[in-house]
Structures
1.
Amino acid sequence: MAHHILVACMPKSASTFVTNALAVAAGLKKVELVPEYGRREQELCEIRLAEAAGIHYVAQQHTKHSNWTEQLCNEYRVSIIVLVRSLFDIVVSLRDHIHRESPVSSMFYLEKMHISQNDAEMERMIVMLAIPWYINFYMGWRSSKSARIFAYEDIIADPERAVGEMLAFSGVSLRKEQVAAGIEAASGDGSRINVGKAGRGRSLQASTVSMIMEMLSMYPDIQDDAYVLMMKAQAADILAARADESEVALPLVVPAATVKSASRQPLRRRMERFVRRKVRLFGGTRNQAIAIGLLVLACAYFAFLPNLIPNSLAGGRIDDFAVPAICVFFAARLLTRIKIRRVPVKGR
């Protein structure tokens, strides 16, 4: 019986390396199971599956999960290997790919004009438009009973073990020497694993990391999932490194009609940075700063500021107590919402 393997992969997840290693080690032919690439979703083509049914093959496709895809793979006896990678690292790798190669992909729509964006702008665009595709990819294949998921981080840490497990899952029995030979051949020219690197996402801005984690938080049932736990650990690492850094907001794309008001933005940003620096200087948070301001306003109103209701009128003393009381109330609310940040412990 012929061996058929589909490498369903996130882009930038060592899929070229894995496919080449599997092909060389097991003597599989590399085939394409989709009729077209470019901006087209890489849904499997049944005609291609039927044409290749009689040969041993491996196919590398950026194919999301669906019941129909899984049904096709079951009918044509295709083993499904799924490759995933840290979303933080993917943002950086995808950014570099767009700048160096092409903005055309099936995950999201970019045009040539976007290539000129700086790294921070491109990363933000990727997170907003492309990362939902990656989360869709993971959530779909995670629900599959036929697929086996492998993490990029595990593959580059121990490629022989990972490729060996992929072959065993696919029903291909090989000696360790054959697996090693496949990996050695795949690690040469034409493979991208030699520039692969885990942890590239450490350069991302804290706001970018927070956006990704907020997307993942929409799925409460997977919060103890191994992949999500890895993402949480990496997020904590990155945010801890950014804790003492002041981020500069990305420039907004403003319609021509509002260009005049946009001229005031640099001053506003300088004021925001000034306030953030002063808050950090005193070891506080933004909520603490606002709360202190409200308490100062309460004291000032009670002691110095003109009254909303003149004291000469009936009930004129009401506002002298009401306004400070409101300020104190909201200050207390802000102070009770302050979260204590856990201090990261080295070595854990």
2.
Amino acid sequence: MKRTLFLPLVAALAGTWLGIAPAGAADNPQVIRFGLATVGKGGIPFASSSITSLAHQRQAIEKELEAEGIKVEWTYFKGAGPAVNEALANKQLDFAWQGDLPAVIAKAGGLNTRLIAADGLLASNYLVVPADSPAKTLDDLKGKKVAQFKGTNLQLATARTLKRAGLQDRDFRTINMDFPTAAAALASRDIDGAWLSSTAFELQKSGVGRIIYDTRAVDARLTRQTHVLVDGDFERQHPQIVQKVVDGLVKTAAWVSAPENDNAAFELWAKSGTPVDSLRAEQGELSLKRRYSPRLDEFFVDRYRATVRESRELGLLRGDVDVDGWVEPKYVNAAIDRLGLQALWPAYDADNRPQAR
């Protein structure tokens, strides 16, 4: 018996002497795969928003994983949220940045994911018409051709907006178009309107389009939220790597929250092909610190509960999602505490009001 116990001990010590990595390190992946539900103009691998896209450009996550020798593979998806869902379902991604609606649809369909960080709050939706259109209100476009990118988080935000105004999707001749196609269709007058994000300001500045509705200006509950999620199996097998990824995201969020880094952040986002002035116009008076708080607070969780509820009411979702069980705040909270950033991002309540500490 003593001999049996002694031999494994010798082998373990020999492994240490020879520089062989312990089992946990040996089991680490050589590469982690990160997907973003967006792409820059012309398919270039940059995004016009998100902490994740800045972390990519600044190699923030690579720096956190350098000691483990883990590389990061980045993929930008023209097909947005639905394409990311397909890649996650096929185990082609470990982490992803995407919007609320597609993630909820995938979760209700059985996709094993965990939400581990907020990454882009209070994003507005803009209804754009051709510059010479007489339309000034939603009602003016009833029965007209209006484009939206279905399957993205803009779809639900649009549905919320129409419901608030006493309208429905069927009140319009809705056409499914991605954002570049919709922008081109507006320029050629092939459609009467389109729901867009920051592209709206570029079209307005160039004289192609005119914004007639801004959802954030009307009500914060009409906005869109985005996040970072992780494959559930990956999180179970490699929680220490998940923490390092979140550390990189939180450090990037702290960088962009500092006013002195404002110009640098917009310049990096502008590599997507969207001009800085359009990005600034889309940001409006909302601070970058608020927009890119990584906290999974009550505001974030309540917005996702609303996404589940409203998606079911609108027939976009057949299953159900336990949002409280889906959201995992421990990684962000650990990073914030360890880095001493508790005061940087206050927690907000469901009504988008800072909570007393």
